[in-house]
Amino acid sequence: MSKKGKGRNRKANANVGKKLREAKAKAEETLEAADEQEKDISAEAAAEVREAPHKEVKTAPVKKHRQSAPKKKAAPPRDAAEIARESIKHTRTGGIPDENEPPRRRRRTGGKRKTPTAEEIREARAREKNKRRIRTAAALVIVAAFALTAYFTRQSWVPALEKVLNRPKETIVNDGEVKKGNFPLSFDEGSVSSIGSTGSYLLCLDKNQLKFYDEDGNETNSFSHNYADPVMKASDKRVLLYDKGGSSLMVVGRKSEMFSKVVKNRIIMAEIAENNNVAVVTSDEKYAGILTVYDGNGREIFKWSSSSSLISVTFDESGNGCFVTTYSSRGGTLSSVVRYFSFDTEEPVMQSEALPCLALQAMENDNGDFWVAGDTAFYKLDKDGKISFGYSYQGGLKDFSLGRECAAVTLSGVRRRSAELLIFDSDSEKTAPEYTVSTDDGDPERIKISGNKIILLKDNSINCYDVYGNLAATAECSSDYSDFVYFGDNVYFCDLREVNKISFTT
Where are the transmembrane segments (predicted)? Predict the structure, then answer.
């Protein structure tokens, strides 16, 4: 090899050796850095392990009726390698978990429920009952408050409501045509004394017989009598027939006679109740009025005597008591007294104060007060017989009719052929008629209350009013009629010679 070639080789070898020495030094520096990093990691891990036992252990909160969870034992120290592995393992969850943190409670998805005890069941039922009682009491309080409010404010809303409910309806105009067939029922002149009804039967009393007719005018039964002045009173099932001024009476049914009696003194008046009791008023030399009551078999059950004259006797709804009106005159002043008797006691249950009129009839209304129709005034008495109000008539009294719901009085007007109808309401607090109807189409003759209808007979027409004074129906009729009976949407008229029938839709 030449010297020039050897020189190039020595130069190349020197460069390679320099590079090897630099690589070796760089490798040694890298190893030293790795050793230092490993030492730092080991020191930090050891310090963490030493501090772990001194941390406060957290425990789960203790609940009532449950045993507290046992305290966890402190984890033993772990070396750096284990810590490094845990760190790598929990990289996704954010690092190393805290082993001192209590485990999260899992929801129980199944298992057997605890059975309630009998005491717990009773307590639950009691709580439910209390809730129902509270709800019921609250509802009652609300209803009571509403009712009280409505009652105390009735003056403001009742009149408006009555105007709506009592609005006049279209009046039914009946043709007034007399029915044919068996009608009219003819009698000898002057023989028809009176007509009436019992149930759905028409009653006709003449000077010799009491006759029963059906709605078509067919005679169904008759009873003979020999009374000089016969008077008839009817209930729903029986008819009382007596001789006014005489001493004989009899009670008949629709098919047979129930009983007959001859009393000791002359008969002034008599009445029959719906329970078949019969009241007879007589007089003698000692007493101006003697009231005797018989049961349905004719046995005496009550007797009362008075020095005052008796004007009327009216049974109550049960038939076990009656209202009696009497009158007397002292110092030229006429006065009346109303008494109510119960047949199981001798003394009157109620006795009114003196009324300055002739009390023609008295009875109890739906409100528990007492109607009294007088010859010059109309009265309402309270339960103790004290005067609640008195209304003096502005015209002459023609007729009246008393009912439980209302009372009706008809007066002759000041002008010719004028009339006035007064309607008194049992629930009204007014001291005057609740409704007044004035007409000028005829003089009033008779008035009767049938249910909630007021039937008024005039000299040439018959009219039906409701209890609010509205004209519901009307029909023309003959001026010869003196009395009438209304039932079954028909009116039966009576004059001295015959009985007629018309259809009367109300």
Answer: 134-153
